[in-house]
Amino acid sequence: MSIQTVGVAGSGTMGAGIAIVAARSGFRTIVYDITQAALDRARKQTEGFFAKSVERKKLAQGEVDKILASLEGTTEIGALAQCDIVIEAVFENLKVKHELLAKLNAVCPPSTLFASNTSTLSISEIAAGSGRDERVVGMHFCLPAQLMKLVEMSPGLRTSEETFAAAWALCKAMGQIPVKTKDNPGFILNYFLIPFNNDVIRMVEAGLAEPADIDRAIKTGLGYAMGPLELLDLVGLDTHLLVAEALYASTHEPRAAVPALVKRMIAAGHLGRKTGQGFYKYSGNAMFGG
Amino acid sequence: MGYSVLKLGDSASFPESHLLLEQARRDGGVVIVLGDRIPEALERLGARERYRAVVVELRTECLGVYTGERAGEEGSNMLGFARFRLGADPATSLIELVRQPATPQAAIDAARAVFESAGLKVSVCRDVPGRIIDRLVRPYYNAALRRLDEGLASASDLDTTLKLGLGYPEGPIGLLERSGLAQHFDVTQALYEALGDPGYAPARRARVAKQRSLAAAQADAWVQRQREQGND
Ligand SMILES: NC(=O)c1ccc[n+]([C@@H]2O[C@H](COP(=O)([O-])OP(=O)(O)OC[C@H]3O[C@@H](n4cnc5c(N)ncnc54)[C@H](O)[C@@H]3O)[C@@H](O)[C@H]2O)c1
Description:
The structure holds two protein chains of two kinds. Chain A is α/β, with parallel strands linked by helices. Chain A folds into two domains: about 5-180, Rossmann fold (3-Layer(aba) Sandwich); about 190-275, Orthogonal Bundle (N-(1-d-carboxylethyl)-l-norvaline Dehydrogenase, domain 2), CATH 1.10.1040.10. Chain A has eleven helices and ten strands. The N and C termini of chain A lie far apart (about 55 Å). The relative contact order of chain A is 0.10. By secondary structure, chain B is α/β, with parallel strands linked by helices. Chain B folds into two domains: about 5-125, 3-Layer(aba) Sandwich (Rossmann fold); about 135-220, N-(1-d-carboxylethyl)-l-norvaline Dehydrogenase, domain 2 (Orthogonal Bundle), CATH 1.10.1040. Chain B has nine helices and six strands, in the order βαβαβαββαβααααα. In chain B, strands 1-2-3-4-5-6 form a six-stranded mixed sheet, with helices on both faces. Chain B is globular and about 55 Å long. Bound molecules: nicotinamide-adenine-dinucleotide. Nicotinamide-adenine-dinucleotide binds near residues 12, 38, 89 and 119 of chain A.
């Protein structure tokens, strides 16, 4: 099957980025959200993003005009009936996703594929509430989606080969780099990253080394661009907690369990960069201390 | 401030020439003790109090083996260090500098200054098995090897994901295949024995690589014996 029109459900952080990716590669793109405010915010951010692309001479103004004209927002779910695939990026909650997919199932033709951008839920479980479980596939983009090329793609237990192949081809047509993974909690990225980050936090918690010493060791010894604690401060400890708790709930692996220090830091308002303090202190955008 | 180097036996941290060795003097406020015969070297060194810092090379052992420990109050002018290297890869410029709870700051600063004067980077940590990097990455490497066996994804998709998703210079499978699965076995097995934490238990692929290298050594030894006996 050939995909011409891409739907995105949920116009939040991820949905807005995914819509940029689709529209930029020439697909007619329809973004649906329950709130007009979310659509307006995303539209503004998208226009700002493309204005920068023009400034940096990555795109010509004419190209941007065309892209923006192919990208529309709506609060009417019925508008998604025209889509060959709908990528959902609504709240990370199985019930919310089931309700959305059930409604989509009623408005979209049987041929429309559904993809989920879930980070921690099971594709098979999401598909079970869709009314078309053979045509549901996992498509996990990375934040920020408009810049990151990686997409982790996973078939659910009942996903058909044609569905997977069509979504894979779309991914490539959008200029992304797909990898295939099993429908496993956290897929690849979060499955490895969350326990590693928890171990790093436990090292700080136990006073085995200072954050700056740990980051310096990892960057110098392994050549990582960013230290794990710098990364956690960027992601935010509240976000880390949410993902880690979801992962632990489905794997019960001891390393996925969130160290108590995370909750103490959240209670103290030390969420990371966004509150000016996490494992490091920040003034404006610059890091000091450490 | 000058420093001296006392080396007995083979050094894993500085097996080759390095600015740290070239800059050393015959005497100085800090002495770096290198090699795999640390107890003997410490005996030869004599009175340690006359140094601002005595810094001994560690492998998988803790510093406490040489200093003794006193109910959590241990700490003196004696520190430990290891220069990080991954298996067969060349040594990096990272020095993990090991302190104890009551190590005086002046001793830490003196040791740090010596390494930094030779262009090395220093991370200070407590006297625990695996220090910083090995303690953190070995469970991740074992998990990657296990998940590869379980078919979570192909080796190349696993590596691509971690490279693109996290900006790592290399994925875990490619890195271990290059730097040596048998060497990973040695490090993670020592940590497993020291910590008892199942995350460090060597993954099957690491154990197989280790057994294979032992088998190859045995076969080589036989060929060598045959040759010596003029049987070939
Ligand atoms: N934020 C990340 O780093 C990240 C990365 C990869 C994947 N994800 C996944 O992407 C999804 C969205 O995450 P986000 O961070 O963009 O969330 P977000 O809260 O920024 O956005 C969610 C949007 O969905 C809308 N929404 C909620 N229910 C809806 C419904 N029934 N119909 C239509 N729209 C609805 C909300 O109004 C909101 O605008 C989640 O499944 C999350 O796990 C997030």
